[in-house]
Amino acid sequence: MKLIEGAPIAEAVYRECLESLTELKAAGHLPGLAVVLVGEDPASKAYVGSKDRKCRELGLFSMKIEKAATISQAELLDVIDELNADDSIHGILVQMPLPKHLDTDEVIRRIDPAKDVDGLHPLNLGKLAMDDPTGFAPCTPSGCQRMLIESGIETAGKHVVIVGRSLLVGKSLALLMMGKGRGGNATVTVAHSRTKDLPSITRQADILVAAIGIPRFIGADHVKEGAVVIDVGINRIDDPTAKNGNRLVGDVDFEAVVDRCEAITPVPGGVGKMTIAMLMANTIRACRLRAGM
Ligand code: NAP
Predict the structure, then answer these.
(1) Catalytic one of 118, 206, 251, 253
(2) For 79-123, what is each residue's pLDDT tens digit?
(3) What is the DSSP letter of 252?
(4) How far is Cα 268 from Cα 252, in angstroms, rounded to an integer?
(5) Which protein residue has the closest C-alpha to ligand 1 atom 36?
(6) Which residue from 257, 287, 222, 291 is spatially nearest to 17, judged by alpha carbons?
(7) Which atom of ligand 1 is nearest to 192's Cα?
(8) 14 vs 59: CA distance, rounded Å
(9) Most exposed: 13, 190, 252, 255, by fewest CB within 10 Å?
């Protein structure tokens, strides 16, 4: 069994980022990322903090914009308009989820597609569907694909079953994996909460991806002997034996499936490490594209 850890693969992405950054800086360009946080959700705050820290660590310009949960739709759109017009900013990320009174789709559509480093604008999702490499692919799915590539796991002709159909993860990953590029050319099945007899479908997977949001949902009866398992889930569960009384687990019951797998990603320390790395890579690419490099 091979454990596919995120950290070394993320480090490879950061090395590429630093090379690109050196070239950009030499040519007088500094990539800038703006992250917009609305409200006080502790998990969202932690994610925004990590993105800001990673930008500074690598030497990107980082702008953190924090707004009260009571912000109106019009005020939030004004924030996006200002960032769209700001030449020091090459990437804009609005941390999700937004408070319920806000129209998330309208906010995403307002972001300049050339600065949409989260890859969720309809133009970028359309490019993803069209195998057009000039767009930005969402960070978590790109991270999953990169992990497969770097681990030497062939995807062409393989049956990939993805459980979860969110745009942020499942649906976008399906587009990437059925695409004609590197790490693609798979035969893809997407399952969701209305799928009947899920285990009979997931057991057909050569590569099984769990992006569900239910702690340890995927058990031994879901996994074929010799399958590769990618666990996207990040769930905090109570654990009285842990220091803070809780710990992170994935959507896969790691202990139950590990002996059946050819390879598996851990949680924490798996896909989660890749999301920020791909965000940095997309921001640097956005800067290169604007600079014509
Ligand atoms: P989401 O928007 O809630 O989507 C969950 C998907 O799982 C939906 O398509 C849902 O089906 C499906 N689902 C729910 N219950 C199911 C069931 N019983 N059987 C089969 N499918 C079921 O969540 P998400 O944003 O995609 O995130 C998924 C997980 O990944 C979460 O744990 C999240 O924390 C994690 N995540 C991790 C990263 C990272 O950086 N590693 C990034 C993003 C998300 P329906 O569509 O029918 O409701």
Answers:
(1) 118
(2) 999 999 999 999 999 999 999 999 999 999 999 999 999 999 999
(3) B
(4) 12
(5) 233
(6) 287
(7) 21
(8) 11
(9) 255
